[in-house]
């Protein structure tokens, strides 16, 4: 028998009708009761919290990170499944992956339709996640939806309501689940796991600012003045903004703010091609390009880097390693 612990956090998979809309309110055992168990798998439930995922805070995510590590302290556990709302699943999964050094898998799943929907996707996703958690090893943190197995890194929600809502726009899925079998097609690209942040570590403010036509750095500067220790600049194209943003980045970096540079384009890397406020200038000003990581996961990368060290230089180096796994590949 394979022993899988299910950590529940709420989301649509735990949602019921509340009179004018759906909200998470189902306990973990109710969620688990919606699915059949794969043969040879036993489960235990940890009810961590029950919230809609847009309401998750950094404190929630750090609590989840610690809870999963506590579960994996038991050598008798073969894998972990986290049920999570889809809106911010990509963020929580990536944060856990950045701190996950165990060979045993952590598998995120959820649903696009509420728990009581007769045609819902909760049962199928949960079954597939349990089977994956009981079957794979040394793949880090994963997301399982609609029969696909995705790496945490790079995987984002690409459709607001469709059941097959998660994809990595820049990379293929890790594998698939079907007919009671798990098929792994590739190994995810990962960085060396970061240590857990200290219990007493403060939770830094990390903001996101998007560039667009007519944009100026007013909101970027406001984030710095509001106390942001990290900012994600969501640029256009391959990571481009304006000379005014270049100056704002330089000012922020000079004050010890960690700035990450991503793009609003769904696929492809941030690349220093253009000057005149383009990525070449923004990177020269101190922004760290985050490769194919998009906004939410870039924010998690900045957050993890900020909590990794009190030293600005070390934080910046950590963010660079997170952004580019090829610099420090995980040993096989």
Architecture overview:
- It is a single chain.
- The chain is α/β, with parallel strands linked by helices and 332 residues long.
- It has nine helices and 16 strands.
- An eight-stranded mixed sheet has the order 4-1-5-6-7-8-11-12, with helices on both faces. A four-stranded parallel sheet has the order 13-14-15-16, with helices on both faces. It has a two-stranded antiparallel sheet with strand order 2-3.
- The protein is globular.
- The model has no long low-confidence stretch (mean pLDDT 96).
- Its EC number is 3.5.1.1.
- The active site is at 12, 12 (o-isoaspartyl threonine intermediate), 86.
- This is asparaginase.
Notable traits:
single chain, 332 residues, alpha/beta, Rossmann fold, 2 domains, four-stranded parallel beta sheet, 9 helices, 16 strands, globular
Beginning-to-end CA distance, first to last residue: 27 Å
What count of domains describes the coordinates? 2
- List how many beta strands DSSP finds: 16
Order of helices and strands: EEEHEHEHEHEEEEEEEHEHEHEHH
Rg, alpha carbons: 20 Å
Corresponding CATH architecture of the largest domain: 3-Layer(aba) Sandwich
CATH level 3 topology of the largest domain: Rossmann fold
Biggest sheet architecture: 8 strands, mixed
Q: Write down the overall geometry.
A: globular
Give the oligomeric state.
single chain
Q: How much is the average pLDDT?
A: 96
Number of helices in the DSSP assignment: 9
> What is the beta-strand fraction?
15-25%
């Amino acid at each position: 028998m394979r022993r899988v612990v299910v950590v529940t956090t709420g989301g649509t998979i735990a949602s019921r009708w509340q009179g004018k809309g759906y909200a998470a309110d189902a306990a973990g055992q109710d969620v688990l009761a919606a699915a059949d168990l794969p043969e040879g798998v036993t489960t235990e439930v940890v009810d961590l919290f029950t919230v809609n995922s847009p309401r998750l805070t950094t404190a929630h995510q750090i609590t989840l990170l610690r809870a999963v590590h506590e579960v994996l302290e038991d050598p008798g556990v073969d894998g972990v499944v986290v049920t999570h709302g889809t809106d911010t699943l990509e963020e929580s999964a990536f944060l856990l992956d950045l701190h996950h050094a165990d060979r045993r898998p952590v598998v995120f799943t959820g649903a696009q339709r509420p728990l009581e929907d007769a045609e819902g996707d909760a049962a199928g996703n949960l079954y597939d996640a349990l089977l994956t958690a009981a079957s794979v090893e040394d793949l880090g943190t994963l997301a399982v939806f609609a029969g696909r197995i995705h790496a945490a890194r790079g995987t984002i929600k690409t459709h607001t309501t469709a059941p097959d809502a998660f994809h990595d726009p820049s990379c293929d899925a890790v594998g698939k689940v079907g007919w009671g079998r798990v098929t792994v097609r590739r190994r995810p690209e990962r960085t060396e796991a970061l240590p857990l942040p200290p219990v007493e570590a403060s939770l830094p403010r990390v903001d996101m600012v998007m560039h667009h036509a007519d944009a100026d750095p007013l909101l970027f500067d406001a984030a710095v003045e509001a106390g942001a220790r990290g900012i994600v600049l969501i640029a256009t194209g391959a990571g481009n903004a304006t000379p005014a943003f270049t100056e704002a980045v330089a000012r922020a970096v000079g004050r010890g703010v960690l700035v990450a540079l991503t793009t609003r384009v769904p696929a492809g890397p941030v690349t220093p091609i253009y000057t005149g406020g383009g990525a070449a200038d923004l990177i020269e000003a101190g922004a760290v390009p985050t490769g194919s990581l998009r906004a939410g996961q870039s924010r998690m990368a900045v957050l993890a880097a900020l909590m990794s060290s009190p030293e600005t230089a070390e934080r910046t180096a950590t963010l660079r390693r997170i952004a580019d796994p090829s610099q420090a590949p995980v040993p096989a």
